[in-house]
């Protein structure tokens, strides 16, 4: 703790150009990611599928996948530039201190004196700032959903549903965000220099609470969970769970088709009571054994301890962030560089600290994706040992075609952005080489494609 305090005093240098440094970090990250995207765009201009997929994917499907990938890449260039301009505008025009001052005026005018203070002021500031950023994100969100995804047949949402989702999101932010943020601030205010220990313990409790309440109270606001009906699929999944001694409590089907044709399956719950959720689109597009094969992969993560390891890494990451925050929380030169000369709000310190931490977060993201891809290979191998090699490979190929997912990737782009190996790598590891029969593009045209996600099966 003494070391952290000494480091904090060392970094608190009057006149130090924190603003220029953080703007430089942001610009460097933007240029780096644009460089990676440009490398990936060259791959998206290739005319032939990778050799590993030549016997599985028709030229027509490959061409559609490449076109979709290029469209997303172009949109990404514009969206990232838009975000960069927003961030620069907020910093250049000192919008943070101006908004803090404005919400302070509201506090004194409309809030009874007994409730005034930094915590209530912070809540007003935070929710106002969140509304502003949400409004600013509307153009890119709307274009992504109702132009880009609509063009390629992925979108199943309506404008009404899209708007309702935003409203529900804001409501949840108030209901759950207010007590969590209040607790965060109260801990920092009352526990002195050792606040980061208590913040970490608070985050652990919140995580366990979220695991419990999310499927019960939050998920039903957006989707409907229905018990999986009796039949071969339910029998197959239950037998797999018994075989692995997985503490299965219930099996659900989620109406993912309500918003898109995206397919997936996952499990959640406490260590002694787990629930499996299967998307209705996955059941619709796959054979029974293929779905069981996918779940063999997912339960492989559990059996191999991947979920526990990732949880441990996440908690360590959270602890070191809070510990580093203790170095910056009293850094007056950081506040002053961004226009805060008389007041030094905790929430502002955390926002600025997060911006200063950007280079380290980039390294963490790279390392976590490397570890995640390793875990994906191990989970695939686990499914192979259970006898689901062909079923899992067949399901992955179907989803790749239905998704119009990127079928190849630049190695540098993939290392930084992908949490999963690309399909040719996974098929090679599964020992699957197909029957040299190409997927029937005409047949696929009659099916709705599946929206690609950042984290697929």
UniProtKB/TrEMBL annotation:
Record text on cofactor binding: Binds 1 zinc ion per subunit.
Transmembrane segment boundaries: 171-189, 195-222
GO molecular function, one term: metalloendopeptidase activity
EC number: 3.4.24.84
Domain Peptidase M48: 227-430
Keywords on record: Endoplasmic reticulum, Hydrolase, Membrane, Metal-binding, Metalloprotease, Protease, Transmembrane, Transmembrane helix, Zinc
PANTHER family: CAAX PRENYL PROTEASE 1
Function: Proteolytically removes the C-terminal three residues of farnesylated proteins.
Name of this protein: CAAX prenyl protease
The organism's taxonomic lineage, starting at the top: Eukaryota, Fungi, Dikarya, Ascomycota, Pezizomycotina
